[in-house]
Amino acid sequence: MISLKNETIAAIATANGIGSIGVIRLSGADALNISLKLTKKSELMPRMATLCKIYSLDGEFLDEAIMIYFKAPASFTGEDVVEFQMHGGYMVARMILNELLSAGARLARGGEFSHRAFLNDKMDLAKANAIQSLINAKSEGAVKILARQMRGDLSKYANELRAELVKTLAFVETSIDYADDDLPSDLMSQISEMLSQNHAKLERIVALSKSRQGLIEGFKIAIVGKPNVGKSSILNALLSYERAIISDEAGTTRDRIEENLNIGTHLVRIIDTAGIRKNAGNVENIGISYSLKAIEEADIVLAVFDGSNFKDEQDERILELVSDLNKKVFFVLNKSDLDIKFELELPDVLKISAKNSTELLVSEIEQYLNSQDSDEIILSSSMQINSCMDASNAIKRALELLNESELELFAYEINSAIKHISMITKPFERNEILDEMFSSFCLGK
Ligand SMILES: Nc1nc2c(ncn2[C@@H]2O[C@H](COP(=O)(O)OP(=O)(O)OP(=O)(O)O)[C@@H](O)[C@H]2O)c(=O)[nH]1
Ligand SMILES: [Mg+2]
């Protein structure tokens, strides 16, 4: 009988479809025994690829597979793991999986292998999150960032910060408990300096991560402009197919249209919107409010103007709308295949013709996206961003309390900052860490 803790779990690890090989993963205390039953072998050498015949429990030959046994704790989950690499195709995998289940394994729940790896200290939350996101990554840029997280860069960042905070907490809690003259007199200013630096560090990573979130999720690009300037024509040209209806009637697009597109190594989500103008009809007004929302949501805005016409009040309104946006705006003068009448006294105006080519626009967007690539560590999920923001706020409050010599409240805030920052890697266990820190202080008391 397998105890609940040591339940052996099994799952098909490869995608559901036709491929040359299929992989089943088995993890838990009974993984080896179950595998031996199905292969009629007496042993499997750890970390050795072994070609085995696989039989059903009734003794019927099912397939040949390369088997690899990873002996605990040197495995993905930290438990005994056996991997079956069988011939591809869903039926073979299913039949073998069923035999594993009859032999005592249970079907793994989603993410259960990673969960066990986390519980066995094989990976922290940052790595688990990176693996999950890597599987779903849709652009080369995202893969690069997530690979760095998997390597442990973010964990190192969070752990170093956490270690400094724990040290601070230990110092201050000690100073609450012990006589002041046992501690260096400039300790408070040292702590204050260190906390200010960490606060700035957190503010920076949050700001950087927010502005670079598009590297992972795909940057959002909103195409805005007054009616009839050629917004939908630009969308269609970028997508290379007729996605949106185009006509010379103003107010053609009334609903917001969104499509994904790869530009260079990046994924972008492009949003075509209803032309913005005054005195539009009711339905169009709804569309216009969607456009304003699209500007708000977007990372990049394409402000489009009709180069073949003179600038009017509506164009002025668009210029006004995008003038103090805290995001990248491309000013696009469309219809440049016609005589240019539109005057736009701005640097970097992109003169294009959606009818002929959007190459210039694409290469400018690509250049901008490449410039956002960064070797710096960034947070890849909103949970990580929120944890850093919460930690940063707690440190800020702690700094104020330190100035007021409110040490107990200060300790409470630092504790809270540690808890938040720990959410990135591993939830904070106060006693365990404080014991460790205090033991290294050699206070002799
Ligand atoms: N000559 C020329 N005509 C263009 C160009 N781009 C778009 N047009 C024409 O301009 C008209 C309006 O194009 P749309 O793409 O529907 O414009 P829009 O901005 O999406 O318009 P609304 O959806 O009404 O806001 C159509 O007749 C297009 O064929 C261009 O580069 N050159
Ligand atoms: Mg349109």
From TrEMBL:
Compartments in which it is found: Cytoplasm
Q: Which Pfam families match?
A: MMR_HSR1, MnmE_helical, TrmE_N
Recorded GO molecular functions are: GTP binding; GTPase activity; metal ion binding
Can you state the subunit structure given in the record? Homodimer. Heterotetramer of two MnmE and two MnmG subunits.
Family affiliation: Belongs to the TRAFAC class TrmE-Era-EngA-EngB-Septin-like GTPase superfamily. TrmE GTPase family.
Q: What does this protein do?
A: Exhibits a very high intrinsic GTPase hydrolysis rate. Involved in the addition of a carboxymethylaminomethyl (cmnm) group at the wobble position (U34) of certain tRNAs, forming tRNA-cmnm(5)s(2)U34.
This chain's protein is named tRNA modification GTPase MnmE
**What is the protein's species of origin?**
Campylobacter californiensis
